[in-house]
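[Automated response] Your request has been received and processed.

Submitted sequence:
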Amino acid sequence: MLNSLTVLRFLRTLLIFSFVACEKNSQLSEEGEGVSSKKIFSLDDFALSSDAFEFSNSKKSQLAVFDSLFVNKECYTLPGNPDEAALHAFFDDLRQGYLQKDEGIDYSVIRKEYHTFTHAMDVMITTHALLNSGGAVYLSQGETASLVLAALGHDVLHTGVNNSFLIQTNHPYYQELGEHSLQETRSANYVLTLLDKHHILTIEVGMSEDLRKEILEARNLVEQSILWTDIKRHKEQIEAVASAKENILAILHKQREDTAQEGNIGARKKDLNNGVNISDLLDFKTRSLMASFILHCADISNPGKDWVKCERWAVLVMNEFFSQGDLQKQLGLKPSMNCDRSTVSVPGCQVGFGKYVIHDLYVLLKETIHDGGGYLLENFISNQEKWKSLHAIVEETGAPYAMKFSPPSREGGWMGDSKAGN
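Generated structure:
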């Protein structure tokens, strides 16, 4: 039996540290809730330890982050170099896609709490942080920019229910697109449509052949990286990266030797500081695979954040799952896996997800991106011990885990009812 001191220790917040990012400063909105008035932040703040809830509180704070990544040219420049007006128009349309509600989904029951624009912001910031912790050595400059943009769009148009529900209810989206990566396909298609609408990553008259090729590959990378976020492709992706890892790291280690550097571990921030980049030595298929792997890790990075953020995100995703289970019961359908609030232990679900999905993913991430993967893996191991202990308390006492409900802001995409929080 755990004593009270031990339980308190389980809930202690981990020490947070940051990784180095770009140098350019940008100004957050004075009016953004949760953001200090007149606060100036540099891109050093966009690290694995960053608080996406704070950055996403208002549209102005969201746009400040987006501008820091894409309008300040010292950071990311997309192939074709779109202007600020086009980028802002794209941002507005993309953001609106996260806020819409879909026909055929009962939003009086479904609480879209996890798959919000705040989640998209979190994944974009985390993707940037993983690139900045070493992952960028595998990609060209245009590819890193395209991947960060794909991260922001990876869940656009998400319905708040999973693919299984859409298939189970014969939803029109299933009839239109079929069962393979259903919502991921919708998201990828929509992002590409918006890129065309705003003349971003599009072929224009008079472009050189090299730029045409770069843009076509960037669009392919955007599409494929979003499609790879389908959790059903998780095992397939891990196997593909593990198979390519030995050759990729051999090339990286050789490049370090050629630049009089040492090291036989995965990519590090130090490599970026020393100008190491092996994108020219990798074929596009391998670069696309690594980009997709980085985005997939960012998409399910919450178990590797500090405990406070880890628990907050876990409650949001479980609330969303349980609302789907509630609707399935109302419709006389069997709840999908982990969606039945009457039988699923929240801590137990986190333990299982960590054991069967997250652990091997983060180990592989550390092997390929040492600094970023190491950060997520260390936090994950600590968080798993907390979840295991909380699950043990549930099992011993029979009392359910009390979820601490703390949703994103309304402007961050939350559509729920605070009175129905738990």
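Summary generated for your ticket: The chain has one domain: 4-420. The mean pLDDT is 89.
If you did not submit this request, please reply to this message.
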